[in-house]
Design goal:
The chain is 17% helix and 36% strand. By secondary structure, the protein is α+β, with helices and mostly antiparallel strands. The protein has one domain: OB fold (Dihydrolipoamide Acetyltransferase, E2P) (Beta Barrel), CATH 2.40.50. A hairpin with a 5-residue loop joins β1 and β2. The longest helix is centred in the middle third of the chain and has 18 residues. It is globular.
Amino acid sequence: MSNLEGIFGEQGQQEMADEARGEFTVLPPGWYTVVILKAQLEDTQSGGKMVVVEMETTAGEAVKDRLNVVNNSEKAQLIGRQKLAKLGICAGAKQLTDTMQLIGLQLDVKLKVEEFTSNTTGKKLKSNSVADYAKAGDHGGSASPTQAKSTDSVPW
């Protein structure tokens, strides 16, 4: 047993915990080369299913995407399935039947920055979201953002 008395200072444990929420690195928009560390099918709060893909840039920064594959909204489900299909093809898993096939594969991701209001603190925060996927090297992805090629048809 270890005594933690005073470790949180005058702030107190709750205030310190509240301040820590939402603190993460937001990468500049652009293309990054990533490796897939983890991919698994998870339940959503609304009773659907999503594939959660955890990736890491070549500089060690975390990137995550959540792809709705079973959803009450047919449009959300279609978008999620299309993104999963593209992710698999770009990563080299052309006959994707299990999320384990994605582990260790490399690809380029196009990140964008989104602003939102925290539902716990009410503060304005920013986070990254994956806007597109490409085969590793197709967009010069790296540890730092790069400009998309002029043939890029994605409007964001």
